[in-house]
## 1
Amino acid sequence: MGTGALVSFSAQATSGDVGVTTTAPAGDTSGQATGAPLAAEGGPPTSSPNAPDKSPEPPGPGEPRASTPTSPALVSEGRTLFHEACSSCHGANLEGRKDVGPSLVGVGAGPAEFYLSTGRMPLENPREEPLRAPPHFSDAQIEALVAFVASYGGPPAPIAEPSKGDLQQGFHAFTLNCAGCHQIVARGGLTVGAAVPDLQSATADQVAEAMRMGPYLMPHFSAKQIDQSELNSIARYVLWTRDPSNKGGWGIYNLGPIPEGMVAWFLLLAALVLTARLIGETTS
Amino acid sequence: MTGRRLDHRAQRAMRAGDERLGASGGIRWALRYVFPDHWSFLLGEIALYSFIVLVATGIYLTLFYVPSDAQVVYHGPYALLQGETMSEAYSSVLHISFSVPAGLLIRQTHHWAADVFIAAIVLHLMRVFFTGAYRKPRDLNWMIGLTMLMLAILEGFAGYSLVDDLLSGMGLAIAYSVALSIPLIGGQLGYLVWGGEFPGSGSFLSRLEIVHVFLIPAALATLITVHLAMIMRQHHSQFPGRGRRERNVVGTPMWPAYALRSVGLLFAVAGILFLAGGLIQINPIWQWGPYHTYLSENGAQPDWYIGWLIGALRLMPNWELAVGGHTLIPNPFWGGALFPLFVFVVMYAWPAIERRVTGDHRRHDLLDRPRDRPTRTAIGAAFLSWVVIIFAVGSTDRLFYRLHISYQAQIHFWRAGVWVLPIIVFFITRSICRALGRSGTHPLRQWDGTLVVRRRDGGFHVLADSPEGPGSLPPGPPLGTAPGKDSPL
Amino acid sequence: MSEKEQRDGRIRRAGSLIGMLVAGRALREALRRPRTLPASPPQSDEDPRRREIPANPRAEIAVTLLLLGAAAFALGFTTLYILDGLNPQLLGIAIGGALLQLSAAAIIAGKAIVPQETDVEQRDVLLQGPQVESVLEIIESGGEGITRRKLLIGAAGVAGAGFVTAAVTPLASLGPPMTGIHETQWHRGVRLVDDRGNPYSAADIQVGSFYTALPEHGNPELLGAGLLVVKLAPIFMHLPAARRGWAPENILAYSKICPHAGCAISLYRYPLYQPTSNGPAFTCPCHYSTFLPGEGGRVVFGPAGRSLPQLPLMIDDEGYLRAAGAFHEDIGPSWWGTRRSES
């Protein structure tokens, strides 16, 4: 709609948002991890042409950090598993594959732990959204894979301690930062380009890992924006949403007016219509 | 008639009343008043009784509600909102829900009653349409009914918006944008209703309360009275059957059976609504939190009777009329204002349209079965499916996503589908009606078991009482008079 | 256009023209044809009247029990109200149960105890020609002797119009004039703060997240108050030339209020790995309008008719984010005459 048009029945051209991509950052390091890489076998590069566009945020100073178990044996087992299941998209040396999978160098234990424990990885089709599923690997295998990925550097995995969190603070922060995508009681939803998962199965640590990392299209939140105490509170709130305060009775999935409308029509009005049929004359 | 002597006291009371009011004639008329007895004639009553529950519970709630948007800090029993800033209105509803005995029960009953009230009206509207009961002399009453539907929808929206929670606050913002989108006057209209730019001046909530608690209920009560008075003047319509003619009414007298059954329905409505109000949670506003203009949540939906509008708003492509660097007709106008206006105008005009197209200006008191008027039924089904599809677009996004259909794909599909599907519904409905009409199955059966079936040549045919079912006895004398034989008056 | 396409186009146009002519003729025929009225339903000559006495003592006992049960439940409600008034489930069962038992009692009484009758009443004749004539005559006779009938009626009409106008006029006081709708609290120098009042510094804003900002010392409830603040990686930055200076350090600020229908925009997507998913965008949860922050808030999906208004930012000497000016267009939902963005 240019200034030349005097009267226009304008339809702002929408560019069919699905699949809009811009070229992958070649050597762009503006989002790289700032944490110092841990000692690694084989000295992998700290930056890579397939680097992800968001790097996982490290814990702030003085914040608790998960201690990722690591040993040469574990890392070696992890390497074997990785080569079988992950290297086709993430490269043999975690360097990533152009337009297929990001580099995992320097991402640290958090993202690995998150994606594996929620069953989102391994991913059949890299173009599809990774969705929660029963984990492909056993706990021991996940430990090994995490140790392997962590050996390539990156921040330690974040954790959350819900018992130290404040429910009111968590509700407040969740409403402001998370409810827009995850719904007010974490029942999940929809956005343009992705389904937003409900958080009913999420553990506190998974909440922390996702928040600091920003899986798929989710934004990530640094300690500057959401410090550890707020993180604890948000995790506590998310766990609370599994059994929210349904003082009014049956919560009908806490989704709001849609299940309410269904109850009104198919339960209440249906019961009343049956009563009317009892009272009045009927056709056969 | 039964031979029992009436109680002496009852006699004295009646005589005392009649000395003063002379109402015994009217009472006699009322007691012997005949109601045709089909169950589908009770749908309007379900709506009426829901309205009574609404008024009763609403009076209670209004005694506790505070219509003020002054910001207060919450210090009440609900821990998650402790220390939170919210409007006094929202805080008062939290108080009703958590601190007033039976407060939550009555609040939830009130909200369920609103949902059921409008659902019953819509079901009643469908019955009236598909049986042709809106024809002369009832076209006037049809329009009154439509007006009541419109008022009921506005009333429900106003009611749950008074609470000022996150969900209803978002809805009010959208209502504001629809008001603003009306060409020429929209901006000033929005300013007038809200007392300034959204979220409005301090007086918005108290004015909304007056609308919800007084103005619309008074209008509804008046219209209900006129609606019922007209029905009583014209007598209720009836299906064809044994003993039924255009000029008579066959049914159950008011006293004692019909009155008892009607009262039974009233208690059933109230009972089911209170049961739901206690057992099934509705609008848990403490979980949504208070409304602020800079907050929103995913999956926010209006109550079901506004669902058709959110569907329209989502489905519309982003067309706006702009001149130079200025918007003239903003996008929400099409889905939020023009669409509902169109639907209501078509419904208001329908009796006149049908009169014009069929040339039938006679008075009708005998009803059609939907299958007997295939074209009308098909048009109604198609129009209904058009509105229902738009409603579904607004609410089934999560459902389709489970089938791996992206939101964009859903919208693009339904932009075409919303026109194509009703046409298909039209043709399917029409052929079903014609097939049913030809086969003569599912005859009407009266209270006493007699059956009416349609003959192949198009007339009707009343079978005598038959325990074995239709067709087992020889058909009775053919009935059915030529059209127009009876005076149309 | 190729020759084949031209020929096809001509055939299509000719076809549709013929089709329209045929349809038009058919319609005219249908309207002109003498219509047969729809068949009336049959009218019965039988006498449907009856009166049956059920004489059902068992039903009477059932009704008695139901009534007593209803009384018990109702009393239960009162008891519960006193003992545990904050338990809506028990209270609902008590009063709902009482009402349902009452309902059952009334229905059973109405169907199985009292006499079941079918009766016939005649409908009133509604149109009574002579009466209507007589009414009209009476009304007309009220005007006997009046000479300037039309003039009086005309004057009454004018008076009516005048009074209706007068009656409607006070409505105008209900709404303030629309001055000020183009203004928000954001003008040059206003500092951005979070919802607890803490100011945002440029160093706080990181790539891959989004922040809600409000004006310092302002009223957060006003529509123009909320801002979305994001920082994008350079590859996503494609601002129009005129706005190059609006995003210091690639930090962008937009109105948080969707220009479609006024909801707060609270969905933000930022890809973890761009080649396999969509670029950064804001989406509104109400009707899913989607805007690109890297391209000046351009709409890429959804019903929003104009782009998301952008606020120019600057970084002050202490590193805090401040507005560098006011919005260049109107925020929030549009109305007749809303200013749109120039670019």
Note: The first strand of chain A starts at residue 7 and ends at 11.
## 2
Amino acid sequence: MTLELLEGNDAIAASAIAAGCRFFAGYPMSPFTGLLESMSRRLPAAGGVCLNAESEIEGVNMTLGAAAAGARAATGSCGQGIALMQEAIAEAALNETPFVVFNMARNQQDYFQATRGGGWGDYRTITLAPKDVPEAVEHAQLAFHLADRYRAPVIFYGDPLLAQTRVGVSIRPLDFGPLPPKDWALDGTGGGTGRSRQIWTWAMGKATDPGPGPDRHWRAVAEKFAAIDATESRFEQAHVEDAETLVVAFGSAARFVEYVVDELRADGHRIGWFRPVTLWPFPGAALTAATTGKRRVLVFELNAGQMLDDVRIHAADRAAIRFIGGVSISESGLAFGELMDAPVIRDRILAVLAEGERP
Amino acid sequence: MERELVVTGVGGQGIQLLAKTLALAATREGRHAMLSADYGGEMRGGPSRASVVIGDGPLRALPVLASAWSAIVAHHRFGEPVLARLRPGGPAIVNLPLVDPASLPRMTVYGVDATAVATSVGAPQAIGFVLLGAYNAVTRLVDPASLVAAMEELLPPYRKQHAAANARALEAGAAAIGGRDVRHAEVQR
């Protein structure tokens, strides 16, 4: 296995292209800009197209169009730009157009945006939150697979560390299993023949070929998301068996928590960790099981408490929960603040442990 | 075995390029490497820091290092936060006379007058490579030939004319450490 030393953004772009991504459109915004630049360097050589759109709204709608024509397509930004994309993401979820949105976020404050969405309708977005660059390389490909499998937009939740850290990685196409044919894709050949295909959020069809209409269609879409919720949640955990205290974290923060927990265990603390790999579907049943009988459930995230809601929904005992994260942004506003640091996380955990019986 | 290096100095000293060169050299040798860069918006004179982690397997170190084994200190300014995380006893290469060796009392300090060494081999712009050459002579983390190859690979086309001078700087940095004893035998590969 040959390793290439690639900046995270570059590795993610290369991996997406290895997965068959052939269309990318976006608008520069730090720390996402490196991903757009990498796509613009790499995609033409792979026979694809990368466009610097004039806004995030244009970028996501171009992507929706390319995806409707059957291409593996993606867009991206950071949370601020993805806020602008919400209408198109909701439309795509409801008219069942698969593409990937790379959120190379500035921080962890986009959890609600990713998992609750900002568009209209009964939809969810599958959200993958890798903890480091090697996992980001895998998720960049898994995202396209899940999008195609479920005909739905998928969000990849990155961050400044994933975007900008250079790591030795190996990039090759990954096989996640068979996919249904894209027999719904628009091919531009049906015009005037009466056999043209249609992708419409309201699914009303046309005079010669009536669709199910919004009532039946939106119920079917809601049932699809319920099925995804039941089957596609992913998580990782360690030391749950003997832990009195469990720390829940996602993305890069979970990698830091893992590091700190290893240290604390070496010091004799009975502590473990739990990481939702998919933020939606949230691995709720797994978290219930992992938190059963635990004295303390600590939630660490770099925001004011967003994943905290999902932990509250699913923890075996809500009274055991204590939030140890917080808002923490660098002076530039473009990266994590001082909270994303092992000694700081260690101190916060130890402070709660020192309080005794209950948090 | 995992080894961490922090490099600190001011923008323009070649901090980022030397860190990238070491990380790439290790990668080309088939090892795992991680490189984190941290620098100000200024072209020159602002904070410039980097960290490199090299290991024989997947790395445990975080992209924000909790602690580090070794250091290259090209300038004392801006260095305090990262230097505070050095584990005692590890090697530190300091750029004389800008950096006071006594400022790192808990480290095994190797002083190199990088400007004088670089100038003596006709590579005054390459003090970063002098420091890297010295660092690698002490730590032997990678083959010196790998550093030269990585440096050449990283130079953009419009900088290729500096390749020979940079190679001399790497070699002169190693020679400046000379026969000095490497106290930490375990750093050898």
Note: Chain B has a mean pLDDT of 92.
